[in-house]
Amino acid sequence: MCGIVGFNWHDQELLEKMMAAVVHRGPDESGCYLDDRVSLGHQRLKIIDLLTGKQPIHNEDNSLHIVFNGEIYNYLEIKQGLLQKGHHFYTGSDTEVVLHAYEEYGIDCVAYFNGIFAFAVWDSNNKRLLLARDRLGIKPLYYYARNGRFIFASEIKAILASGLVSRDVDRDALNEFLTFRYVPSHRTLIQSIYKLPPAHTMTLNGGEIRLSQYWDIKEQITGKSEGDYAAQLRSLLRQAVRQQLVSDVPLGLSLSGGLDSTSVLALMSENTSNIKTFAVGFGAEGESELGAARFAADYFGTDHHEIEVTEKDLDLLSEMVWHLEEPIGDAATLPTYILAKFAKKQVTVLLAGEGGDELFAGYDNYKLMMQGNRLSRLVPSAFKYNLIPSIASRFNESSNVRRALEFTAIEDKQAQYLSLLRLFTEAEQKKLGINHSDGSGNYFPNNMELLNRLLYFGIKTWLPNDFFMKADKMTMAHAVEERVPILDHNIVEFAFTIPPGLKLKGTNGKYIFKKAMAGLVPQQIIKRRKRGYNAPMDYWFKHSLKNTLEQLLHESKHNYYNKEYILKLLADFQGAGRAYALNFPNAQKLWSILVFEIWHRLFIEKRKFETL
Fold first, then answer.
1. d(Cα 371, Cα 44) in Å, to the nearest integer?
2. Disulfide: which of 10, 29, 205, 260 matches 44 by Cβ 3.0-4.6 Å?
3. Which CATH architecture has domain 2-213?
4. 129 neighbors 203 (Cβ within 8 angstroms)
């Protein structure tokens, strides 16, 4: 993993300034290439080919140069084909394979790669700059284009370091953030800085920018037996884990003790011994997964390590937001940050078990939608569309009861699902003084079964803009690379060939995934009740975070939303009971506002995080 930066003119001093902004992503080595039309910079974290993989890398006649962030897991297979076609290599790196694949196949080279990546290729013969991002958006890539200036980077901080970008908040992106707790579109919260969408390439040629999508998920349900689906899924998972164990530096596993991470551990143990596992818990302040992780570690005989996140670690919030760069209302960001720092003492690569819930319907959202869809057919329309809204209006805007009733009364499935995901309800957004935004784009296709539409939406919005953003930024802050084998694109494609009823069977989520892992993972874990990775926000907001958020709001000088409404929500929260499940939605709202206020100080007001 690395940090990449660049722009479409020659400026050595600026390039070095931008590289310094992402040095934490690649502290091992740096390099640059400049000519009259382009400047490319690279900060390297050595993972594969430790001796000869310095970037930028060039081809035989120096007409092509590349800066690359990520891993291509099938690079040796691609390299063999390129050698047969007469290509010559001077390194053993996957980066050079990417460059020669471009030389051989052009922009279509991206279709050959199985991996996680963001890269830029300068083609001096064609005067073309190519940017590309992996299929699911696991690695980030940002860009700025205005007045003939084009800048790209792995992180927003590097683009801001150019001094060319005004630090203005994008109000549309803010509305999206206050709807979803992340920005689901190509926007960022800073005007004129955008994300290259997952599975897209972008070319800059003669001042013309072209954006092109090279991959998408298609529903192609097949008629295999349950046993055949389970066997093929098990085979694909084995292959993905085996490929992603390739590394010239120590690697380990982030272990929760849940089905997904334990499945990865089971498959890792088939290929290697003395596996290092790392787990995080929350002590007496909240639910802890340490016991389950310890059970899994003992079962597979790993070299296991644990750390607890407590209230004192909230001192790291501004540091965390600085590395996060984009506000995300997900409190799991903090333990991810702390775990990566902890694991870095022993490993440089961490595998993680994310993906089972997103591909095979493990979350409660999917169960609620499918159950609601079945029940909706039984409720008379007059009752659903007239009486229920009337009853709902008698409850407070932030009431879970009101939210449930309003959900029931919505006919359109896309609108109904978005109401389930929404951070603030439409009524609350009116009191906040912001516009409603669904941010759904074209991510709710009508040509799929309902469950697959829900899964597709999450894969296209939540995964790249919340989970992967959080995972990449929090691990790379400590120069740690995270890999997610369950989200290998071959597994994603296969998941959409499986009948929805084998993913969510009644209320049994991840049914086929459990079948695939039977005999490899202990039944105690397969049958274990699904638990979220939930930080104890309710405890924190009733203690130290109460004063922190109040101070931030009182000192804040912007007028993007009604701060008095948030202060009232915070005051009401203090009197809420101890039921975490009931407090969780409101705690998410408060956490999202807290993170935004810290972000605004750091990135808009340009304060140093040490002063917060």
1. 49
2. 29
3. 4-Layer Sandwich (3.60)
4. yes
CA 389 to chain centre: 35
The pair phi, psi for residue 506, each rounded to 5°, is 70, -115
What is the DSSP code string of 464-509?
Answer: IIIIHHHHHHHHHTTT-EEE-GGG-HHHHHHHTTS-HHHHEETTEE
Peptide bond into 56 cis (omega under 30): yes
Which residues are known to be catalytic? 2
Q: Where are the domains of the chain?
A: 2-213, 226-361+456-526, 364-451, 537-611
What is 226-361+456-526's CATH number? 3.40.50.620
Q: How far apart are CA 277 and CA 254, in angstroms?
A: 6
CB-count burial class (<10 Å; 0-12, 13-18, 19+) for 533: middle
| Reported pTM | 0.94
Structure tokens at 242: 């085996």
| Burial status of residue 501 (CB atoms within 10 A of its CB: 0-12, 13-18, 19 or more) | middle
The DSSP output letter for 74 is T
Q: Which of 60, 44, 63, 64 is nearest to 52 (CA)?
A: 44
pLDDT reading at 382 higher than 70: no
Q: Report yes or no: 11 and 18 within 8 Å, Cβ to Cβ.
A: no
Asked if 2-213 and 226-361+456-526 have one fold, the answer is no
Let me know the angle formed at the C-alpha of 548 by 547 and 552, rounded to the nearest 5 degrees.
Answer: 115
Residue pLDDT, tens place only, 383-425: 555 666 666 666 766 565 666 666 776 778 888 888 888 899 8
Hunting for tokens 């499935």 — which residue is that? Answer: 413
Q: How far apart are CA 499 and CA 513, in angstroms?
A: 13
Q: Are 306 and 279 in contact (CB under 8 A)?
A: yes
